Amino acid sequence: MKTKIGSLLFALFVTLGNLYAQDVTTVEATDSDISDNLDLEAVASLFGEAENLEDFEKKLNDPETQISNLDLNEDGEVDYLRVVETSKDGTHLITIQAVIEKDKYQDVATISVEKDSNDETQVQVVGDVYMYGPDYIIEPVYVHPPVIYVWFWGPYYNPWRSPYYWGYYPPYYHPWHPYPPYRYQRNVHVHINLNNSYRHTTVRRSKTSVELQNKSRRNDYGAKNPDKSFTKRNEGVKNRQELNQKKGTEKVNNPKTNDVKESTGKQVQDDWKPASENKGDKNKVKDNKVSVPSEKPNSKPSAKPATKPAAKPATKPATKPAAKPAAKPAAKPRGNPKSNRR
After folding, report:
1. Count of domains observed in the chain
2. What is the domain extent for residue 270?
3. For 143-194, what is each residue's pLDDT tens digit?
4. HSE-up of 54 (CA within 13 Å, CB side)?
5. What does the alpha-carbon distance between residue 246 and residue 237 come to, in Å, rounded to a whole number?
6. Which of 73-82, 289-298, 328-337 has the weakest average pLDDT?
7. Predicted local distance difference test score (pLDDT) of residue 291
8. What is the pLDDT of residues 33-87, one digit of tens each?
9. Alpha helix segments (H runs only) across 97-219
10. Secondary structure letter of residue 38 according to DSSP
11. Measured between alpha carbons, how far is 67 from 319 in angstroms, rounded to an integer?
12. Are the beta carbons of 288 and 193 closer than 8 angstroms?
């Protein structure tokens, strides 16, 4: 009888455990998107801080800053992003490609650079239609003219085509594991120069850049995975901008999400200390990080004067004057030092 009761209780315990496990596995967040893993405003910000296209590629793949979180081939490591340039009649098209396999590349975004009729340089960062949907275009307006403009239109300009490929990368590069998209989005904002502005538009300024892109575009990942295109992943949403607006509306209705977003700035700056990103930067990202180290100098001076001056006057005048008058008439010049030592 006891054996039967024990068996029934064991069976009931196992059944309840299975039911609980089923309830837990059904509650999962599945609203992340591939385009969550590379913020093009951060890309535009880095472009304005680069000295040339070689430096721009280095910044994109810096293991310390970790601007990219893309892992298209799903090998557990962030894909290397190479930079390829083509030009025609004063128009430069810079293509950012993810290296996913041997001789396999996926266009992620392009940057068109050309001068307008007023001899001013115009820049547009365009997300690839497979990755970000159609007409996802960012026009950065830099607070100071970037150094890379001088390189494009100066006497030292040389076309840049990345020499790196699958299995052959620069010595500074080592791959890292991707983060969950929500954590990446939170952390990457510290690398966006907020002194610039990033206007969104749906109009391509340069017809020449469109022609160059159509001739050189690589869509190896998209051709292999047509069902993973932006329009397939997000039915009813045109492009990344509309997706951002949709997610922004959801964040307004969720106070917990807003709290996390507001409180991440200083935490990210404390945890992330990218030394390579600040080299040669005279403008904004470097200035945005001044607030963190500025706290250290203020704490050290306030600590030292508070302890040392207070300790020395309080002890030395109180002991030495009292000891010397008592020691000289007693004819024990060596007794008092020894007793003081004890």
Report:
1. 1
2. 34-284
3. 999 999 999 998 889 889 999 999 999 999 999 999 999 999 999 999 999 9
4. 8
5. 9
6. 289-298
7. 35
8. 899 999 999 999 999 999 999 999 999 999 999 999 999 999 999 999 999 999 9
9. 129-132, 147-153, 181-188, 207-216
10. B
11. 62
12. yes
Q: Does a structural domain hold residue 290?
A: no
Six-digit token string for 63? 């293991």
Going by C-beta distance under 8 Å and a sequence separation of 6 or more, which residues neighbour residue 127? 35, 40, 108, 109, 133, 136, 137, 239, 240
H helix intervals, 38-83? 40-47, 53-60
Q: Are strands 104-115 and 80-88 parallel, antiparallel or unpaired?
A: unpaired
DSSP, collapsed to helix, strand or coil, labels residue 66 as: coil
The two tokens of residue 11 are: 């069976």
Note if the pTM is more than 0.85: no
Burial of 18 (0-12, 13-18, 19+ CB in 10 A): exposed
Query: Which amino acid is present at 2?
Result: K
**What amino acid occupies position 298?**
N
Six token digits for residue 158: 């040389």
Tokens of 144: 């100071």
CA atoms within 13 A on the CB side of 129: 11
Radius of gyration of the chain (CA): 31
Q: Cα(first)–Cα(last) distance of the chain, in Å?
A: 80
> What's the rounded Cα separation, in Å, for the pair 294 and 292?
5
Kindly give the residue spans of alpha helices, DSSP state H, lying in the chain: 2-25, 40-47, 53-60, 129-132, 147-153, 181-188, 207-216, 220-224, 230-233, 240-252, 255-271, 285-288, 295-327, 335-341
Q: Does 10 map to a domain?
A: no
In a domain, 342, yes or no: no
Question: Does the structure show a pLDDT above 90 at 267?
Answer: no
Token pair listed for 41: 């405003």
The closest of 189, 157, 180 to 31, measured between CA atoms, is 180
Task: Return the amino acid letter for 144.
Answer: H
On whether residue 326 sits in a domain, the answer given is no
Nearest by Cα to 68 from 162, 218, 184: 184
CA-to-CA distance for 113 and 52, rounded, in angstroms?
13
Residue appearing with tokens 């052959």 = 168
